[in-house]
Every structure is written in C-alpha cells, then in structure tokens.
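dumping this here before i forget
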Amino acid sequence: MSRILLVENHLILRQAFKGVLLHCFPGIIIDEAGDGEEAFKIIYTNPPEIIFLDIKLPGETGLALSKIIKKSHPHVTIIILSNYDLSVFPDVLSEYGIDYFILKSEIDM
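structure:
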C-alpha cells in the first residue's frame, strides 16, 4: 500500500487535496502535516513514498525541507505545490531535490 505525506499549512486546501487524492486513488494512505516539524515526525515514524510539499510553510520553507528530506530519504519522491511557477527554474528544482512541481492553480478541486 502506498503512503503519501501531504504538507500544507492551509487546512481547507490540505483537506480538499486529500479528498481529490483519495477519490483518484482509494487505496492509498495519506498522512497530513501543517508544517515542517509535524512533517519530520511523520517521515521518521511512517516514511512515505511520495511527499506533496507546499513551498510556503511556517518556519522552514518547502525548499529547505525538501533538501533536508532528500539527504535522509533520497528515494522519497518530492512534489512541490506552489502558487509560484518554479518550473522555469530547473536548477532550483534540482538543487533542492525536488522531483516534480505542480502549480496549485492547476489542481482541479
């Protein structure tokens, strides 16, 4: 069974995105975190295969978190969620260990 971690500080957006994922992939397990501290607790307790990570979080940014996560869990797929189009900066994505990038405006909720 696949395990996903959804890290998003806006509860309503996090719940909506979780609903979309569960609708599309009913067999997955989705853990949720509102910030980096919660995310790290989950990552070390129940490591996910995929992490959807908001770029703008309280405390550490999603970019900083992705770099830290990739050092300890290099095989985890990290997908950044943002209102900012980082796809035009491929060097930034690579530098921080980001595997994919999704604009929040493109998520059909």
